């Protein structure tokens, strides 16, 4: 399955069900003939003959058919609701994975979730009332045939009105296609400004930012309003055209009644059926702006899932299902680069990291230390060379084994919405004993117990606000959860106080005693006393250095600015 066809495939899966919706629409539209036919029978067979038995019979049959019509209409709406939910379910996982991979690979930095709002828009259209009109339009000929059966002139007049209304609909379509696609830039701009709210308020940037945002917002509002103006104008014209046509056909019917070519019942029924035949087109014109937006959302969603690797759908991932064993990391002539930039920060590096060793990677900021860690644990692919763990290529690692085998503390610590226990357990099934064990190893257990709800305390965007050090220690406990064989720590002591750093050192020593493979990136020299070997990255090259020399190098990198200026 190609990634570009994910949206099309999800749509193709709905076609059979849409055919049933189409069939029920035929039944509903056919049964819409019941009220005018009932009225004709009353005029021609009940009122003139004063036959009460016929009245009862026609009334019972008409009520039964109209109840059937309501039932079919309800089934149709329920089917569309289920189809919308099914379409969303088929693409949710792929979109979730897509946004994760886009963020991890730094293809975009903003927090906008690409594709999710478009998917929600498509679902609302499928489950909403506007789509019903598109299923009713193909059955307009049913009403036109009935009007031609009444009288040829009546049918011809109705056909002319329907064609005129369809011309208005096509004119609306032509003009809407010429308009540029709406780009919701201002919400993203506001969201980006909110991330820097402290700096904006502290430095008096608010007036300038407000002016800039209002200008952007005004431009987009005008862009969106242009389509709404066209749709509103065409909708008004179509609405009043239908009212005029219904009145005019009454006049035509009165003329034919005077000529004794039709009955009074046919004259009134003609007006009702003409309104029924024009109503779906009028509804389509009224909802055209929604349809245009959904059509754009569909194309954008299809384009979103075309870009990038075939990793957005779990079924397309070619995974190695073999579990790891010892945790031997072996790199042979690897080059590392960030996927978005393509800049190679590390070239031709070879090393082997056996279990039971703690390895530190040092170097100045921006030399590629974090990039190397992400390649080791399989977040980023290596640019060149081979990187394996126990002879397993990390780019094809099954997520089940990744969760069990790896512990990772990223440089930029972010916790997820949920409880502390859920975060430590990586949102798998929470096993209290394992959660407490990981928290104790991170020196976090007593701190958690002092919180309002202990391990059930909610954190994240809607929960309790934590300090940088608290977040980092919870992330450390998450990395240690379930006793992983390989633990990768990127700047694990960046936000820790002395006590937190002592807990980190104890955790590292404990991991070494248990025979784990530990890799650390840090600028603080104190942590080097707990490592076995040190690799230094500089100018794209990685070299093995003695631990004593690494201590000296790290202290030089962390010199105060005054000393560096003096030097």
TrEMBL record:
Q: Under what name is this protein listed?
A: ATP-binding cassette subfamily C protein EexD
Q: Where is the ABC transmembrane type-1 domain?
A: 21-293
Recall the taxonomic lineage recorded for the source organism. Bacteria, Pseudomonadati, Pseudomonadota, Gammaproteobacteria, Cellvibrionales
Bilayer topology: Multi-pass membrane protein
User: Does the keyword Transmembrane belong to this entry?
Assistant: yes
Q: Which NCBIfam families match?
A: type_I_sec_PrtD
Q: Which Pfam families match?
A: ABC_tran
Question: In terms of one coarse class, where is the protein primarily found?
Answer: membrane
Residue stretches spanning the membrane = 20-43, 55-75, 142-170
Which keywords, in A-to-Z order, does the entry hold?
ATP-binding, Membrane, Nucleotide-binding, Transmembrane, Transmembrane helix
What are the ABC transporter domain coordinates in residue numbering?
A: 329-564
**SUPFAM superfamilies referenced in this protein's UniProt entry, alphabetically:** ABC transporter transmembrane region, P-loop containing nucleoside triphosphate hydrolases
Subcellular locations according to the entry: Cell membrane
Q: Which BP terms does GO give this entry? A: protein secretion by the type I secretion system
Q: Which GO terms describe its molecular function?
A: ABC-type transporter activity; ATP binding; ATP hydrolysis activity; ATPase-coupled lipid transmembrane transporter activity
């Amino acid at each position: 399955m190609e990634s570009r066809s994910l949206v099309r495939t999800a749509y193709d899966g709905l076609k059979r069900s849409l055919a049933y919706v189409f069939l029920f629409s035929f039944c509903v539209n056919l049964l819409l003939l019941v009220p005018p036919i009932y009225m004709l029978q009353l005029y021609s067979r009940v009122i003139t003959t004063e036959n009460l038995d016929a009245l009862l019979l026609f009334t019972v049959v008409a009520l039964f058919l109209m109840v059937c019509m309501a039932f079919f209409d309800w089934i149709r709406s329920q089917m569309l609701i289920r189809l919308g939910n099914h379409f969303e379910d088929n693409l949710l996982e792929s979109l979730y994975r897509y946004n994760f991979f886009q963020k991890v690979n730094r293809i975009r930095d903003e927090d906008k979730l690409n594709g999710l709002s478009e998917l929600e828009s498509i679902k609302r259209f499928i489950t909403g009332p506007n789509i019903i009109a598109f299923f009713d339009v193909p059955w307009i000929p049913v009403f036109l045939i009935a009007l031609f059966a009444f009288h040829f002139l009546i049918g011809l007049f109705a056909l002319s009105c329907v064609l005129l209304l369809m011309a208005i609909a096509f004119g609306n379509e032509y003009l809407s296609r010429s308009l540029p696609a709406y780009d919701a830039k201002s919400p993203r701009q506001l969201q980006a400004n909110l991330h820097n709210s402290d700096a904006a308020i502290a430095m008096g940037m608010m007036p300038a930012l407000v002016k800039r945002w209002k200008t952007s917002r005004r431009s987009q509002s005008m862009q969106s309003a242009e389509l709404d103006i066209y749709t509103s104008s065409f909708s008004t014209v179509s609405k009043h055209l239908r009212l005029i046509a219904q009145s005019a056909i009454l006049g035509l019917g009165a003329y034919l009644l005077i000529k004794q070519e039709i009955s009074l019942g046919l004259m009134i029924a003609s007006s009702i059926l003409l309104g029924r035949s024009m109503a779906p087109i009028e509804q389509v014109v009224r909802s055209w702006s929604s349809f245009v937006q959904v059509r754009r959302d569909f194309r954008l969603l299809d384009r979103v899932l075309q870009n990038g690797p075939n990793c957005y759908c779990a079924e397309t991932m070619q995974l190695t299902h073999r579990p790891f064993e010892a945790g031997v990391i072996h790199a042979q002539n690897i080059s590392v680069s960030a996927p978005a930039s393509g800049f190679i920060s590390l070239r031709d590096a070879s090393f082997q990291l056996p279990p039971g060793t703690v390895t530190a990677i040092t170097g100045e900021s921006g030399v590629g230390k974090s990039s190397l860690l992400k390649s080791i644990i399989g977040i980023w692919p290596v640019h060149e060379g081979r990187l394996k763990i126990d002879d397993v290529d990390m780019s094809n690692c099954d997520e089940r084994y990744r969760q069990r085998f790896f512990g990772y503390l990223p440089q930029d610590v972010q916790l997820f919405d949920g409880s502390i226990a859920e975060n430590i357990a990586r949102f798998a099934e929470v096993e209290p004993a394992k959660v407490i064990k990981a928290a104790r190893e991170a020196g976090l257990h007593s701190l958690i117990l002092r919180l309002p709800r202990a391990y059930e305390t909610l954190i994240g965007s809607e929960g309790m606000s934590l300090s940088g050090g608290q977040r980092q220690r919870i992330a450390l406990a998450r990395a240690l959860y379930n006793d992983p064989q390989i633990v990768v720590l990127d700047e694990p002591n960046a936000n820790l106080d002395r006590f937190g750093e002592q807990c980190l050192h104890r955790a590292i020593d404990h991991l070494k005693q248990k025979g784990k493979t530990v890799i650390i990136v840090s600028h603080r020299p104190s942590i080097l006393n707990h490592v076995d070997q040190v690799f230094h990255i500089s100018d794209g090259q990685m070299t093995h250095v003695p631990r004593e020399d690494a201590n000296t190098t790290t202290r030089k990198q962390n010199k105060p600015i005054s000393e560096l200026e003096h030097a």
